[in-house]
# Entry
Amino acid sequence: MRQNENKIDVLLAKMLARTASKEEIEELEVWALESRENYETLKTLKKLWKEQSLASKKPISKSKIDDIWEKGMVEKKENSFSYNTFLKYAAVILFIFGFYSGFYYFIAANQEKEEDKVIEYTVLANPAGKKTKHTLPDGSVVFLNCFSSIKFIKAFNSEERKVYLMGEAYFEVAKNVNKPFIVESNGVTTKALGTIFNINAYPGDETMKISLFEGEVEIQNPTSEKLPILLLPGKELQVDNIKDSYVKSSFNPELVAGWKEGKLVFEYADFMEVKVKLERWFGVDIKVKGRKPNDWKVSTVYKKESLKNILMDLQYAKQFAYEINDDQVTIQF
# Structure
């Protein structure tokens, strides 16, 4: 584990020093999906990285590093990114400029040590802008959305089929009465035998949603130690991650799972929801200038449309200007 941490340290430092390749940046995005702490760390560092001479592709000079250092100490007051963490990455940056020669690696699986026993995990992860379909060792099928990841014990070699999810996934579970299928995300456990359901649990989102299409699922009560919550087809459990509460409701199947068919669906979506979905869907960063609209409500479906076409369509109704520059998008109100 320490070796992997050292490699991540170096990649983070390379990103700040502008010497990281596109593949290395994508690798860091995959790493960020492994925990909320990783996600917040990359989010903070990436924000600082993008603020430094976007037009220049050359490595950052020492003066720029000092500037990042100062900004990092300010950022720590507003994010769950500690001074000690920033100190570690700044130290690695300095190490790079003197000694680092460069290397690249790919994580297909990671290992965790538990009670002196090494357990091998398989990690499947998508960076922003990528969606995939996977068949698990038990025959279950998982559609994995953009900027999402799942982790499970190799070959499901345990008494249960347990999957750890960050982001969004659509599960078609193979039935096995002797081995329940369990998905854990944001501290909430969803248990099924043979079922089709979708879970939306992106780190940082205020709400987590579990939507059941077929079968029945048992959800560990996210707010107490009381009896589990049973969910029937056509019903959705919305968990408020901030207020620590939940509510059951019906849901629009296309809105929930249209993404796996290439549909980007909005239903009375406010500006921030549209912005976040576009960033995840296309793997871009959207910067907003001017006053954000308070009355923005969008209800529409885009099927396999380009980012440019979507922005052009929204532009006519919402009156804004936009500019696309590689993975950077600017919207001006």
